[in-house]
Design goal:
Four copies of one chain form a homotetramer.
Chain A: E1 2-20, E2 23-37, H1 40-44, H2 54-67, H3 73-87, E3 91-101, E4 104-108, E5 111-118, E6 124-132, E7 136-149, E8 174-184, H4 190-207, H5 213-227, E9 231-240, E10 243-245, E11 259-262, E12 267-275
Antiparallel strand pairs in A: 1-2, 2-3, 3-6, 4-5, 6-7, 7-8, 8-9, 9-12, 10-11
Helix pairs in contact in A: 4-5
């Protein structure tokens, strides 16, 4: 018996340049396409007669981009999904994942250059569109937003047992590379809403008096719901990029909470969804 | 409203050496622990009084390993899960993920050395244990098994449309870095069953007359069910590491299906679960 | 016979927080230490009596940072080098490599936050200090500056032979992740000079009418020498991150130089040093 | 003034299948080509009239492979170098780097399969060929050989100062991912010599009573010179993949040198060349 079948193409890299005179607009995307449907014969019998090759999926992404300047990743994904559903009768659900790699215009003597760009972001803008024969679901997101605060962060009053060695602290570094996805109500202005969510995530992270990663994660999610009415729910994942104070007493020195070692493994991993009740 | 909360520790690296005279047994694991439970107060109010720190989870992994030589990743995970459930009343479900990095003994003049090792595998042995207050689920797996066949692989007779450029072929290279997880019936001998699954995956991959990645994936899953009775279902994921024939006609040369470029992106991604009916 | 011996510690992660009231200054460094000297006995005879352990090198980096707020990576490296040469009579030359990971302050309602930060740069600031018993050499640098221009870039009039398939073009995308190192004259103001070099690299890249990566690389190096008098020479390495126009004619569409695939491999790799004559 | 100019193509992935009936021979290479020569005009004036595009270098690699089954990476590199020098009058020196990714035949019921393969090695075989108008230099190598020994390894009797915290030990884990390159005397049988060097590196690592990474590195280099007469010198680089014993006394447990944490950063880095005197 066969279940959970899916196939598709990942890592489709698409860059589109739209020229408005000397000013170019650059969209830089990684796209993934995933088909779920009545494809058991291809698995069981090796019968490909209903199979759209993943190479053709890739070509379709490029052809689709050629029809009109890319606007929002969400709209682009929806258009692609509709195309695939129209053409492939055995297809039941298609998922399009888009990551947009963000470029800033190079600043030349205080002016933004028209067609020269620099990567100034650690984070990508993401979108996921899942469409079946009845409905379309759209989630927007942000991936790899690397943030750190060196005050207003504590971790104390937790469970202690015989394996506890972590010291309690009222003043620690909190750092993460956050990833979040959220769902919009119908009609949300994708671009403006995304900027509002990012701004709110940064502001609420900066201002929060944190008792833990969990505590700050919830505050950030809640702030997004409070300040961006188009967002229906938000799911946030935060690895804890631990910064450990170095024990300088071994060298006859004092560490006034100033010298830290940044570690990669092991790492805490915290997540939750916050939604309107 | 809060949902889908989870927290834990990832990337816990544990190496255990067990000495049997001059012959050492080496177990090299990466472990992740994940808690789900009634922890909303830590998110909403910053109240950590029920929170076991992820640092303590890590310490517990090491302490647990100290009590007895590691045997199977599955058993080690089950023991850890039981420990955490016993101690943490708010914990409802705990998931332990283990990846075992496999070492071979160095061969010295035809003899296996007792305490010197070399990494000779691309693949890891994995196990996932999920335990709640009522039941335990165990899945075993293999990650990153890099395999290639240069014959008995075709891809043809697929859907053609105006975006099709892929040529049909009855003789291509098929390569992948497969990942699979499977569920055992109760009482399966973990170590022996894992070896049998790996052996069966390799043999069925080698021997299959492939019409597509889907076709071979199913054949491999089915072979495991046929030959390893302890396996109840198997989920397989196969990225298609495309090897494209180089067009040498541009240089006045013929490519008799001998010269290929190995590509990383974009890549096909195929998956399915095969289970006993 | 033994030659080219060297040993040291790499990947030392150091984060320093300096508090000026509510405003914190964050320095985030990766440091590597490398010793060259009369250490043959440790290799040949296993005699460690002159060997400073690499673990102690690491500790020394943290202790050294505790003595004073980090200012410039170059000065920090010079201080460390002096320390090691003073203490280790067999040490002939010490190299300190520093990469500074740059953080921006989070903007909250138009104001820079005092102690909350976001990674907004693809590039690191680097410094390399090599000191022996007679002299000190200092090189500054930038690593991973990801830049792209969608106009003023051509590649044509090159050698053609029977293996040429690349079409000539007067309008292509030029993209790279540049790395450069440069030497200052004595007395250069490290921080201000670094900012001036980065600004000049960006401006000259943006403004150049490029006939090739080589051509633009030279123009950028020359601009740095022209505009930053403290720089004596500059070595630049530029991988060519090819953006290839997609052939849409196969789908009955025209590509007006708007749709590109961004590729990672294979990649061109171009380098040169530009120095004052 | 311009110096140290070089340009070329990296990341050229070439897979060749040679069919001997049902038994296929697979060669899987990554190739890099690097030109040094009289190319200043391309940098300074944007004059490409002497520039062979890096895209053509890539095509030439594939065309060259089509002429004959690949034998040894060294010979393949030498042939390519000769081709480029013959055709490009401004070229003064060409460097060809080859990494061969090694595949094992899948074992089916005790028999090696003819055309199905599995990656069973962490290490690559490498070769570097540098040829100018007067001479050719060939270096062979091995990259990423991951090895570990859990006995016969100590580190003690080293320099102590006020920053020393590392405990001395007569029994530790020694692990590394070694990379080495070596030079052959003229006429060496490349394939057989490479196998002999790899075997000798493994055997000498396994058998050595190690006082340090330096000590074992030298012993391994010396063993290669002793046992493989074709090798004139060998350069070895060994990162120290530290395995630190976990302090279990904090939990009331004893660590009888059995429980370790494997770390990635920071890491020691040791290197030397051993040559015949």
């Amino acid at each position: 018996m066969l279940a959970d079948t899916a196939y598709g193409k990942s890592g489709i890299r698409l860059v589109q340049v739209t020229r408005q005179g000397d000013r170019h607009v650059l969209r830089d995307l990684s796209v993934a396409v995933r088909f779920e449907g009545d494809y058991d014969e291809s698995y069981v019998a090796g019968d490909n007669s209903d199979v759209l090759p993943t190479d053709t999926m890739k070509n379709t992404v490029y052809a689709h981009a050629a029809h009109a300047p890319l606007d929002e990743p969400e709209s682009f994904g929806l258009g692609l999904a509709e195309h695939f559903l129209d053409r492939n009768p055995k297809l039941q659900r298609v998922t399009i994942d888009v990551s947009e790699h963000l470029w800033a215009r190079i600043d030349v003597d205080g002016q933004e250059h028209g067609h020269a760009f620099v990567r100034e972001r650690s984070d990508d803008r993401t979108a996921q569109v899942r469409v079946d024969r009845r409905e379309a679901q759209v989630r927007a997101g942000i991936a790899g937003l690397v943030i750190l605060k060196s005050a207003q962060s504590a971790f104390s009053n937790y469970v202690h047992d015989e394996f506890t060695t972590l010291p309690e602290t009222r003043d620690r570094i909190l750092a993460t590379s956050m990833t979040a996805t959220w769902r919009y109500d119908a009609g949300a202005p994708y671009g403006a809403a995304w900027q509002a969510v990012r701004r709110t995530l940064l502001r609420s992270f900066a201002g929060h008096d944190s008792e833990s990663v969990q505590h700050t994660l919830h505050a950030m999610g809640r702030a997004v719901l409070d300040e961006v009415p188009d967002v229906a729910d938000i799911h946030i994942v935060m690895p804890n990029r631990h910064h450990l104070p170095v024990d300088l007493t071994r060298f006859g020195l004092e560490n006034r909470n100033e010298i830290f070692v940044a570690t990669e493994t092991p790492f805490g991993l915290i997540q939750a969804t916050v939604r309107r009740s």
